[in-house]
Amino acid sequence: MSPTPxxxxxxxxPYVPGRASAPGVAKPLKxxxxxxxxxxxxxxxxxxxRAVNEIHLYPDANTSLLRAAVAEHFKLEPExxxxxAGSDEVFAMATQAYLREGDNVVxxxxxxxxxxxxxxxxxxxxxxxxxxDYVVDVDAMLAAVDDRTRVMFLANPANPTGTxxxxxxxxxxxxxxxxxxxxxxxxxxxxxxxxxxxxxxGLDWVRDKNNVLVTRTFSKAYGLAALRVGWGYxxxxxxxxxxxxxxxFSVTRAGEAAAAAALSxxxxxxxxxxxxxxxxxxxxxxxxxxGLKTLPSATNFVTALFDRAPVPAQATYEMxxxxxxxxxxxxxxxxxxxxxxxxxxxxxxxxxxxxMTRALAQ
Length: 362
Ligand SMILES: Cc1ncc(COP(=O)(O)O)c(C=O)c1O
Fold this sequence. Notes:
Largest sheet: 7 strands, mixed
Strand order of the largest sheet: 2-8-7-6-5-3-4
Bound molecules: pyridoxal-5'-phosphate
């Protein structure tokens, strides 16, 4: 006899992180996890270094410094915020707090993998809504709701596709969603989409909604992925439920200090976002010139479909890895013939384009 996990736990497919190493390559070019190629704000780095003198102390369980900074910057009520070890932890709070055994979450076909893990870990199931041309289909999302649905996840813009919905579509979805269902609007890439027509991060709109939680992260445009800091803004009763179950110290002192400093350096975020907006167009155009189809992107990555390419996605992925370029093959998202390429520095994007040109010529 040995301890047996709860039913369903061993059926969960573990999260597959972006590839980080290539055999025989000392320092690969990692474009597999949508990290910020410019690192992070110098202010954040300095704050992190200063925190070294405090690593014997527990973090502030209320994340007060960062709470005040986020509330001030985004004009939000501090008591309606929750912080976690990345937005991943906030998703888990939502499923733990709202799913009973056999309840379900609704998510789009190409939803971010961590949501389903959080749902299943909480004893829930996942209802998947088909997308239309790799774009979330609001009507299909509503059609996937049943009487056991408690949470709906939606990222805008989305990963792994990069596509987005105009905010009017999200408002339409919400208007037709039963009010007992918690709508989680995952804005992990919101900073990258600021210039996109019709896009909104929803933070203003959500203020008077009783069943919407917006999540954000410091991992992407802010460049603090290693520190694991994410947050959510939701109705007071939802945050009160989270406050009963969350781990007290999941945001570290150094992470909190660095994130607060990063927030104060909006120049860094704006420069990064501008770079992503320009370079995602350049990369997509180059990939289309090679015969690939690219999905419209409002993020810091481009997803390319190899349906009519002379070489399949997997073989291209492996050829790139042999050259020390790591991108994401989307097989585990059910997109076997697609690669997702993070936007690097300009010279890195040029290197990817050159390598792809060679790979596809073979
Ligand atoms: C759509 C989406 N949401 C959330 C996250 C997770 O971010 P965090 O680092 O805050 O856990 C990611 C990371 O890849 C993502 O792509």
